[in-house]
Design a protein that fits this description.
Elements lengths: L26 E5 L5 H13 L1 H12 L6 E5 L6 E3 L4 E4 L1 H13 L2 H5 L3 H25 L7 H16 L3 H17 L7 H4 L6 H15 L13 H23 L5
């Protein structure tokens, strides 16, 4: 995996970061010892990207926990939120796998964004997604529908509102859902129909819908792959959808 951590995106440029000590925020971050070269590279990319600083800053400003949340890198399972331990587990393998997806799909050539960029973008989106589960539990937030969808929305709303390149980063997260869908057969297994997640292509289009709805003029062509007869209806819906979801999540964000 040559070049994996040679050009990590410094996301610190997208947000003004103020120093945060462990006592000043409600998220604690730890790293397990990486095993093997790929895990060492993954850890290096995480640490050099600045993604943890952004995650901490967003948490301190918008979703503070009553009970401090633990974020552990290097877990074998995940990404996932463990409600009993109030811990988000983020495997190094997830970073490696994401990088491989973006590399395999020639992300820089086809999407004008490097594989490292895409990897860090989806890492932040996933951290926020798992933090959403923790925040829902910590704040006893009622969810009427799939909590997984609500967690995707939580991540997108924060990125779109509070990061300078949040729209581009959110599109990267959507693209990974599409790449993962391409790797699956044309039919679904029963466990996918009864699972808690929406299908990958649904997550892809739902995420793009929020990006479009957040700024229809800037992203006028974002939904061009939607059939023409259906496109205008979807565009109007996406504007409405973003406004509703944005307002609903801000009802629970720290002010």
């Amino acid at each position: 995996m040559k070049g994996f951590c040679t050009a990590a995106t410094l996301l610190l440029t997208t947000l003004t970061i103020s120093p945060l000590s462990a006592a000043e925020n409600s998220i604690n971050i730890s790293f397990l010892e990486p095993q093997g070269e790929q895990e060492i590279d993954a850890k290096a990319l995480i640490q050099s990207s600045g993604v943890n600083d952004i995650f901490l800053e967003l948490g301190a400003e918008h979703f503070q926990f009553n009970k401090p949340l633990e974020l552990q890198y290097g877990s074998k399972d995940g990404p996932l939120y463990d409600p009993e331990a109030h811990t988000v587990h983020m495997p190094y393998e997830f970073v490696t796998s994401s990088f491989n997806y973006f590399s395999k799909n020639d992300y820089e050539k086809n999407y004008d964004r490097t594989a490292q960029d895409g990897t860090v973008d989806i890492l932040l989106h996933t951290l926020l997604h798992e933090a959403a589960h923790a925040y829902i539990a910590d704040q006893s937030i009622p969810i009427l529908g799939k909590e997984e969808d609500a967690a995707d929305n939580f991540a997108a709303v924060l990125m779109l509102n509070y990061l300078e390149e949040g729209d581009t980063m959110t599109i990267s997260a959507a693209d990974l859902f599409a790449f993962e869908s391409d790797d699956k057969p044309d039919y679904y297994q029963v466990d996918e129909y009864i699972g808690e997640h929406s299908f990958d292509l649904q997550r892809y289009f739902t995420t793009l819908c929020l990006v479009y709805g957040s700024d229809p003029e800037k992203h006028a062509n974002l939904l061009d792959e939607v059939e023409k007869d259906y496109r205008m209806e979807r565009k109007d819906f996406c504007v409405y959808q973003f406004d509703v979801i944005n307002a609903n999540w801000h009802h629970y964000f720290s002010q």
